[in-house]
Design goal:
Layout lengths: L1 E4 L24 E4 L3 E3 L9 E3 L14 H14 L2 H9 L6 H10 L10 E10 L3 E8 L4 E6 L4 H10 L5 E4 L3 H10 L4 E4 L1 H18 L37 H18 L4 H8 L3 H9 L3 H7 L12 H9 L5 H10 L6 H14 L12 H9 L7 H13 L1 H18 L6 H10 L3 H12 L1 H7 L7 H16 L6 H11 L1
Parallel strand pairs: 5-8, 8-9
Antiparallel strand pairs: 1-2, 3-4, 5-6, 6-7
Helix pairs in contact: 1-2, 1-3, 4-5, 6-14, 6-16, 6-18, 7-10, 8-9, 12-13, 15-16, 16-17
């Protein structure tokens, strides 16, 4: 007999002793349940008494209701021990991490069915040491089972015990290929396209490494002019008759000089010109007195003496040799006795840069990884600079040009699902002088049927790789300390 009470609240008397903070302080309703207890008449019975169970509410040896038990089991499956215990505490339920782990292990084994399309892949129990195998139903994208190792005999035995597998999606592993032939001889093997393309990219990288010297643009072979003497006229300040390299200040001075002389030609005085142009009268006078703008620019070089004057010939020499970094030039002249500040050197270097600009430094050669990525990537995903650099590299290296053509042909073959044309592509590669791709073709020939099926059918191992990443997350959540049985329960039951 059960009865529902509504009088339990902040002012009601507790119905349990000692008062329970769960039912007497937080709940607004409590179920009072009365059950019968039976006594065994057999004196030899060790149980002696039996309590009556209510279906859906109680269970034998349980200290919580069936609903709460189910909730804790789901919390344990999703979050495991410590995180699950923290969530249970937030829900006002006492459950330790060990209790949650025991609840997971007591759950019944999930039913294992035989999928029509099976995905097989390995996962690391301890990377570099122990590996297991995950089996996934490709049609439903749900894990089917976890095996404690990746041995051929283990996988073959599972396939033999679960007949009915028609298609096996796998990577290029020879162990899984042999296991499929032993356990499911009639199944079609499908090699994953992502792994095939990865193997091709590795072969292309080997080819790029062989021709690494041709990745850099050829340097100018013109004879290098000897360094000018310290007092060379080429490094001296420009004279008023020489054309001046344009810059921000030089352009402004020329514009102001032309405007002042144009207004002088109209008969205006210095004061009206200064008001109209917004310049100081002394500036207008200096512009008016100069016959050309270059005289004003040269005047910047011929001012009063500077603390840097004794070291300017050395700076001119280093500038001609190609050293244009102000910080480095400052450190060099300081070693030679210069006692001034770095800002003086920076200003003088800026003047040198405006008067005698250097050509842009040569562009850094692309790395092997960059070139490999450009060759194996879709052309529409390259920017203009990458496309231009790749075009120049392929023009300098005919072997890489032929490799890129083979890669593009294989990409079209794979995207169009034309696995039947793979044999012709392999023959063209074997007839060409591309040694790195020859090894890739040899590997395809060792597993040709699976590769042709992978390039023809729509099946892939994408779902398997997704569950493999999920296993990594679950392992990190349990700090890598869980046994295989607990990991298997969490993976299969969470799905």
């Amino acid at each position: 007999m059960s009865r529902l009470r509504d009088d339990v609240g902040p002012g009601a008397q507790p119905i349990c002793a000692p008062p329970c903070r769960y039912c007497c302080r937080r709940a607004s309703r409590v179920i009072e349940l009365q059950v019968r207890r039976f006594r065994c008449r057999d004196h030899a019975c060790r149980q002696t008494t039996f309590a009556e169970q209510v279906h859906g509410l109680t269970f034998r040896h349980g200290r919580r209701s069936s609903g709460l038990q189910t909730v804790l089991q789901q919390v344990g499956v999703m979050l495991a021990g410590r995180a699950g215990a923290r969530l249970a505490s937030a829900l006002a339920v006492r459950a330790s991490r060990s209790t949650l782990l025991r609840l997971i292990r007591r759950l019944p084994e999930p039913e294992v069915h035989t999928p029509r399309v099976l995905g097989v892949d390995e996962f690391a129990l301890r990377k570099g040491h122990n590996y297991g195998t995950i089996l996934v139903d490709i049609d439903t994208r749900r894990p089917v089972d976890l095996l404690p190792d990746r041995a051929t005999a283990t996988v073959a035995a599972w396939l033999a015990d679960h007949p009915g597998v028609e298609v096996i999606c796998r990577d290029r592993s020879t162990a899984y290929a042999e296991a499929g032939r032993l356990g499911a001889p009639d199944a079609i093997h499908v090699a994953d396209r992502w792994h095939i393309w990865k193997n091709l990219a590795e072969a292309v990288e080997k080819m790029v490494i062989q021709h690494r010297a041709l990745l850099r643009e050829p340097e100018n072979t013109a004879p290098v002019r000897a360094a000018e003497p310290l007092e060379s006229p080429a490094l001296a300040p420009p004279s008023p008759d020489e054309p001046r390299q344009s810059g921000r200040l030089s352009d402004r001075v020329r514009e102001q000089h032309a405007a002042v002389h144009a207004l002088l030609g109209e008969g205006l005085g210095l004061r009206p010109i200064a008001r109209r142009l917004g310049l100081a009268r002394n500036t207008v006078r200096r512009l008016a007195n100069a016959a050309t703008a270059d005289e004003l620019l040269v005047g910047r070089w011929t001012g009063r003496s500077s603390i840097l004057d004794p070291y300017k010939p050395y700076l001119h020499q280093r500038w001609a040799e190609g050293c244009t970094v102000a910080r480095r030039l400052f450190e060099e002249v300081r070693e030679r006795g210069y006692s001034g500040g770095e800002s003086v050197v920076k200003r003088y270097v800026q003047r040198l840069r405006e008067a005698f600009p250097h050509d842009d430094p040569p562009r850094k050669a692309p790395s092997v990884r960059d070139v490999t990525s450009w060759i194996t990537r879709r052309p529409d995903r390259l920017d203009d600079d990458q496309t231009q650099q790749l075009k120049q590299i392929l023009a300098r290296c005919p072997a890489l040009d032929r490799t890129a053509e083979h890669v593009r042909a294989f990409a079209e073959l794979m995207n169009d699902r034309r696995g039947r044309d793979l044999g012709q592509w392999m023959e063209r590669v074997q007839a060409d002088d591309v040694p790195a791709l020859h090894g890739f073709v040899t590997g395809l020939g060792q597993d040709l049927d699976a590769v042709v099926a992978g390039l023809s059918l729509s099946y892939s191992s994408g779902a398997v790789e997704g569950h493999n990443n999920k296993i990594k997350m679950i392992k990190r959540q349990m700090f890598g300390r869980a046994n295989f049985d607990l990991l298997r329960k969490r993976v299969l039951l969470a799905a």
